[in-house]
Amino acid sequence: MPDAPIAVAMSGGVDSSTVAALLVRQGHPVVGLTMQLWNQRRLPEVSSEGATGRCCSLDDVYDARRVAEQIGIPYYVVNFEQEFEERVVKPFVEEYLAGRTPVPCTLCNNHIKFDRFLELADAVGAQQIATGHYARVRYDETLGRYQLLRPADASKDQTYFLSGLTQPQLARTLFPLGEMTKPEVRELARSMDLAVAAKSDSQEICFVPNGDYAGFLTAWLKDRGAPPPPARGPIVTTSGRALGEHEGVHHFTVGQRRGLGVATGEPLYVIATHQETQQVVVGTNDELLRPGFFAKDVNWISIEGVSGSARAQVKIRNKHTAAPATLHATGDPARVEVVFDEPQRAVTPGQGAVFYDGDRVLGGGWIE
Asked: What is the pTM of this model?
């Protein structure tokens, strides 16, 4: 009986293309699959057709198909736009309007790129899937659990966005680039003469061109026939002193300094936003520091959970340097209290919190 194929999530970028080509070179049967998630021509008032730095564009689909033809594998495109809108875009909008700062790439990984992709793999008879993420998976015989690990290339670490992966998902997932550096991947792509070897990396959220979150929210709500977000509210200090007005809390996120529209002679930062009162609270950099927080909906990966307390390094956003902290059980396995050794700046409700023990991802949840 022939070996079952490996289903490769092909985004059209150099990483996933290299994964597909590498597996073919190693002798594995491979099927390339691309998930069409967002129509880049939608919402023309905020679209930037032809812009670079985005993922999931029509050009990316073309590039993925071109690589699949080049390496001689079957290739399919599957439209998941409706599910992506309901499970990623809609929660993103709702969180922003509620004064929180969501992480759509994590939602997409949790609900679409792994959950639904494994169903696609089943449909083509694949027992395993492979992606171009920079991460590693290892099975721990003692614990009887799959562990998610940081990659060899720390500068490309994507484990922050993968903290929602479950044991069944990790059991079927391959990260072939986990032991490689980005320059090594580029060189490998060039050595295989892949058409995308010199293609730049995607950086923007696929459905928010140029990072204009506020413009996207307004356009998306209008497209859905929903009322626009509240347009005005007060800007106040932490002591309650009014400094001016703003054009909607959805324009602001915790830690923001630019674009506040007020001047007091000292740098001010957004400390909090309150959807109920439409208040934007500003203060000094020191007022951004927080000793800790509670995380909800925690997904434990390398361990079963926390009983009592446990030490960890905690990331509160993707570019944050993981800070030493103690995790305290709350009685709810999916909720944990995090107490930092030293207060951290801009702990933002809605952001992901990921817990590490060295290279191991212990788990991750969402900042309350």
From this structure: 0.90
